[in-house]
């Protein structure tokens, strides 16, 4: 079965769009931490024009559902909902951690991936995944927000060599180097829409879509620190 899916992600510093068609994947990606709202829609226009398609030609719209930056996740979902609503498309939310695992497979062909995004506040968004025969990823460690020290404390060695992905590995390298399992460094630092769209195809073929109204973020953390402005209580 051939499908056409547009995917976008702004959950981290990377801003990316990908369009899956019969001819392959058209994509744009740029690290632009403060310019997501300026970059994302022109990227959408670019890939649609390159493929010669419109939103109404698509079967679904996928998005990075988090975890990641609170603002970035909200921007991505909000724009995705607007596009999907206008074209009456079902939506597919994909974990940004799983997308990084897929990126490791795409780049290195590896099937055991440990992901860590710097979540600030001395914490990381953490997950470990094993690739399955159908191309999906099985969580070995459930996605969570956790301190690097606690990850080290709770982890045990196993037979796998885990390929690392995400900004957390560099941000907390002094702690994460103490992990007991074998690790190799990958080139994947951020999630990318071309990996989101590949995972979204699997979900679409399984019938795992939601309506625009049901599309929701996964923050993992229910609080955020911010500096109070003068006069704000």
UniProtKB/TrEMBL annotation:
One GO term (biological process): tRNA threonylcarbamoyladenosine modification
Cited InterPro entries: ATPase_NBD, Gcp-like_dom, T6A_TsaB
Q: Name one GO cellular component term.
A: cytosol
Q: Where would you say this protein principally sits, based on its record?
A: cytoplasm
Question: Where does this protein reside within or beyond the cell?
Answer: Cytoplasm
Task: Provide the Gcp-like domain boundaries.
Answer: 30-224
Give the residues annotated as coiled coil.
none
Alphabetized, the UniProt keywords read: Cytoplasm, tRNA processing
Q: Name one Pfam family in it.
A: TsaD
Give the record's family classification. Belongs to the KAE1 / TsaD family. TsaB subfamily.
- What NCBIfam families would the database entry show? T6A_YeaZ
Q: What is this protein called?
A: tRNA threonylcarbamoyladenosine biosynthesis protein TsaB
Q: Write down the species.
A: Vibrio caribbeanicus ATCC BAA-2122
